[in-house]
Amino acid sequence: MRIEPSSAFTIRRNERHYGLDWLRIAAFALLILYHIGMVFGPWPWVIHSPHRYWQVVPLLSLLSPWRLALLFAVSGYASRKLLARSGGLRRFTASRNRRLLIPFAFGMAVLVPIEMYIQVADRGYPHGYLHFWSSDYWRWGSFYGKQFPAYEHLWFVIYLWAYTLVLAAALRIGGARLDCLVARALVWLRGGTRILWVPIVLLSIAKLGMMFVIPDETGLLTDWTGHAFYLPMLVAGFILAGAPALWPTIASVWRPAALTAIVAGSIIVAIDLAYLDTMPSHIWAMVDRTARNAMAWSMVLVLFLAADRFLNRDHRWRATLGEAVFPFYLIHHSAIVVTAWATLPLAFDPWSQFAILLAATGTACALFYLIGRRIGWLRPLIGLRSRVASRG
């Protein structure tokens, strides 16, 4: 079936693209499932089932390369729309500071300590939670084999905030000169399949250039390999939101993009299965990293197009689910960790354990959002607009 460019790609200043809203909701839902799957996977995570199941490797391997790329691309797209509605860079930046830094601070003070306590308790920490929170959580350095302070899943929030500031600064400093440069690049990318292969090549050069030189280390001031991947994805989403002329080009490359994702995904799964308990050689590590970049970008293109073609329509649940996404993100990780810590010693079979984790996490997320949205002072802490802003 040939997919034609949709008129919905030409998004006016104040027009909402429902497809991208649904894509954002789906991306965060997949993230929750991914983190539950990590409890059973063979790779390091916060907490593990005593039994590792290689059967989950293909599923996790096929999600891992593009799940975060999609989140940053969708966030970049949303940032462009927020900027258009904010009426200027200063208001946009102030809004992002409120909506990201306040929930980040709340999460670091209330949610992350629970996860860190569980991790040090499993390593022999002798005191209770209140003693840990008041005396040992607020430290810097290694403690019971864990590095403090730790962002845990909130790294995404602080990265998104930092990238927003970088983007705002670039727009303020670059001005018309930056607009001209981007416009020329977009004209060039519209030729042939450049929009598919050029970003893959650039991402691979950046990642491979740092691969054996700079360690992969999560942290705002240390994760340069992560920034070389996540920041371009956010910028790409930001540009796509304001460049309707690019969308027909995306529609024209959906077949090679889908094929690229399939081939790259097959390579990633094969390597992950072959090296479950050992490190791959440098050559295979480079192949794996390149395949991950290829799958990430090609999946972003395919999913953006699919969101327009099949999801660009409103529904009575869209606004509620869209609002609930950020609170769900804040609480889901802690809910999974606490539930796994409490239930894994009971030795349920894996399917029952998965069902318990899914049900408990879903319930915690729903309660966190439904209760928090009703309490005025709590709304900003869980990433929701104040009641006054919501009415406006």
Primary descriptors:
globular; single chain; 392 residues; two-stranded antiparallel sheet; disordered N terminus; mainly alpha; 13 helices; transmembrane helix; transmembrane
What does the model show?
- With 392 residues, the chain is an all-alpha fold.
- The protein has one domain.
- 70% of the residues lie in helices and 2% in strands.
- It is built from 13 helices and 2 strands, in the order H-H-H-H-E-E-H-H-H-H-H-H-H-H-H.
- Strand 1 and strand 2 form a beta hairpin.
- Helix 6 runs antiparallel to helix 10.
- It is globular, with a radius of gyration of 21 Å.
- It comes from Sphingomonas japonica.
- Keywords: Membrane, Transmembrane, Transmembrane helix.
- This is Acyltransferase 3 domain-containing protein.
List the helices and strands and how they pair.
Blueprint (H helix, E strand, L loop, with lengths): L17 H21 L18 H30 L2 H33 L7 H8 L4 E3 L2 E3 L6 H35 L4 H18 L12 H18 L5 H6 L1 H21 L7 H30 L6 H26 L6 H23 L14 H5 L1
Antiparallel strand pairs: 1-2
InterPro entries: Acyl_transf_3_dom (IPR002656), Glucan_succinyl_AcylTrfase (IPR050623)
Pfam families: Acyl_transf_3
Protein name: Acyltransferase 3 domain-containing protein
